[in-house]
Amino acid sequence: MKNKKFISVALVAAMTAALLAGCGSGNGNGGNGGNNGGKSADGKVTVRLFRDCFNLGTPDSAQVKKVEDAINKYLEEKGKNYTVAITEVGSGEYSEKANLALANKEIDLLWTASWMGTVGTNDLYPAGAVKDITSLLQGTALYSSMDAGQWEATKYDGKNYFIPVYKDNVEGYDFMFRQDLIDKHGWNIKNVKKLADLEPMLADAKADGLKYPFLTQKTAMFYRWYIDSFDFFAGDVAANWVAVDRKTNSVVNTVATPEYKEFCKLMADWAEKGYISEDDATKTTNDQTTQTQDWAISWWTDIPVNDEADSRYKQDVTMANATKRWAHSTSALGSCYCITSNASDEVAKAAIDFMGLLYTDSKLADMYTFGIEGEDFTYNADKKVEQAENAKYNHSMWESASATVVTPLYNEPDNKAELYKTFNGGAETSCAAGFRFDKTPVEAEFTACTALFDDYGFQLENGGFKASEVDAKIDEYLKKLDAAGYQKVLAEFQKQYDAWKK
Questions:
Q1: How far is CA 386 from the centre of its chain?
Q2: Residues 395-419: pLDDT tens digits?
Q3: What is d(CA 452, CA 181) in angstroms, rounded to the nearest whole number?
Q4: Cα–Cα distance for residue pair 250/185, rounded to 1 Å
Q5: Which residues of 411-425 are buried (b: 16+ CB within 10 A; e: fewer)?
Q6: In terms of Cα–Cα distance, which of 210, 420, 181, 190 is closest to 319?
Q7: Is 353 helix (H, G, I), strand (E, B) or coil?
Q8: Which pLDDT belongs to residue 38?
Q9: Among 366, 430, 419, which residue's Cα sits nearest to residue 167?
Q10: For the chain, which domains are there?
Q11: What's this model's pTM, rounded to 2 decimal places?
C-alpha cells in the first residue's frame, strides 16, 4: 500500500497560530470587525454564524439563504432586535475556511467541537479566540435550557467560553453494520465483542466485492476503540500519544503500549487482506461515503437513539456496542458553539439570546436543523420529521440544537428527550474527568509532536504500512517523538495531572 505524504502539521499549526492571533485575546469590546460595528443596514444587530455541513458534500447556498431569511422573519415575529447571517461550509473545508474567517474577524458565533483540528475548543481557547461569556449567561433562557452540570463540564479555567449542544454528552463507540448485509449473510453481531471478531464478516464483505469492507472514515481510531483502557484527555487526535491509563490512573505514552501495537498490527493485516482500502489511509473517502453501498462495517458514536444514523446514511444500519460510555473532560464539548473574542458585547448578548431561543423553541430549532417545511422536510401524521430524499438543506440534531427541543425524526421514539437525559446519566465517570492540560509551558514541543501524527500515527492506525513494517515504524515514531521533545511534554502532562489529583 502506498504511503502518501500529507502537508506537515507543523506548517498547519504555524498557520493556525498566526491566523488565530488575528482574533485577538481581549475582552471583545472593540467592535465587530468588518460588520459595521455589529449592525445591519436596518439598524439591527447582525450575528454572523459559521457552521459545518456534514450531511451534504456541498451546501446549497441559495437554500441556506432561504433558511436564513425564514429564521430572520421568525425572529422579527418574536420581537427580536437582531438578525443572523448564516455561512455554511462543507466538512472537508470547514476547519481551513473557519480559520481564515476567524483571522479576518468575519465570525461572531462559531460551531466547533473538542475533536476538531485547527479550530477545535483546545485550539480556540489558548489562542484567545473565544469570548468569556460567564457573566453574560446568568439569568438567560440559554443558561436555563440545560442543567448546571453541563455548564460546569465545559468550563476552561473555571469560566464559560463554550455553549454545548445538549446531546449525547458522554462518549462511547459502536460497531456499525449495514442491515442488508446482516440479513444476507446471517451475521450474529451479538457475538462481536472486540475488533478481531469482525474478521469473518469482513471476509464475506470482500467476497461480495465491496470496496470498503471496513470503513475507517479516514479516522485514526485508536483513541476511540481503546477508550475503555485510556482517557485521551488531550482532546486532540493528533496528540493521542498521551493518555491516562485507567488501571493505574497515571499518564502514559500510548504509542509504547502493547495495546497500540496490537491495534496497528491488526489494521495493517486487514489492509493487506483487502479489508481496509488505501482510500482511508490517503484520506480519499469523505463524509458521504457512508451514504453509499460500498462499505460493510464502520464505526458510530453511540447515542441514545441510534436509528438517527438511518437518515444520516440513507440506509438501514445497525449498531453493536464496542466500548462503554464515559463522562470526561471533553465529552460535553463534542458539539458546541462559541462567541468569538472580536464580537462586541452587544453582538454577544444577541448571540446568547438567539442560542437561548434555538435551544427552547422547536419551530426555530427545526428550521435551523431541517430547513424549509414542505421543501426540505415535512411533519407526518404523528408530528414527526420526515426529511426529503433530496433535501437541499440537511443537518442533524447533534450539530444543531438541543435534543430536548428538536422534533424527533419519523423513526425516533416520542420520548427522545428523556432517553438523552437517561443516557447521559448512565455513563461511567473517568478518573481524569475535569482535568484540562495547559500546553503553554511546552507548546513548541507539543506542536512538534503533533506534526508527526499524519506521517506516523494516522498511517499506522489506518493500515498505511505493511504488517511487517509496524514494529519498525512504531520504533521510528517513538524516536521521532523524543527528538521533537516528547519526553518534556510527557513530564509536563504528568506534573500537571499529579497536581490536579491532589
A1: 25
A2: 999 999 999 999 999 989 999 989 9
A3: 38
A4: 44
A5: ebeeebbebbbebbe
A6: 190
A7: helix
A8: 61
A9: 419
A10: 27-168+331-428 (3.40.190.10), 173-216+276-324 (no CATH), 226-255+437-502 (no CATH)
A11: 0.71
Average pLDDT value over all residues in the chain = 91
Q: How confident is the model at residue 22 (pLDDT cuts 50, 70, 90)?
A: very low
Instruction: State how far the alpha carbon of 103 is from the alpha carbons of 50, 107, 349, in Å.
Output: 13, 9, 22
* Phi, psi angles (nearest 5°) of residue 37: 70, 20
Give residues with Cβ within 8 angstroms of 425, minimum separation 6: none
Rounded to whole angstroms, the Cα distance separating 404 from 397 reads 10
Question: 464505526: which residue's cell?
Answer: 299
Q: How far apart are CA 221 and CA 239, in angstroms?
A: 13
- Confidence band for 43, pLDDT divided at 50, 70 and 90: confident
62-65, long-range: CB within 8 Å, 24+ apart, which pairs?
A: 62/392, 63/371, 63/372, 63/375, 63/376, 63/392, 63/393, 64/88, 64/393
- ∠437-440-446 over CA atoms, to 5°? 80
117-169 pLDDT, tens per residue? Answer: 899 998 999 899 999 999 999 999 999 999 888 898 899 888 999 999 999 88
CA–CA dist 130, 156 (Å, integer): 11
Q: List the alpha helices (DSSP H) in 273-401.
A: 278-281, 308-313, 345-358, 362-370
Interacting residues of 65 by C-beta distance below 8 A, sequence separation 6+: none
The predicted-structure confidence for 73-128, as pLDDT tens digits, reads as follows: 999 999 999 999 999 999 999 999 999 999 999 999 999 999 898 999 989 998 99
- Return d(Cα 357, Cα 355) in angstroms, integer: 5
Say if residues 19 and 296 touch (Cβ distance below 8 Å).
Answer: no
Altogether, the residues listed in the chain come to a count of 502
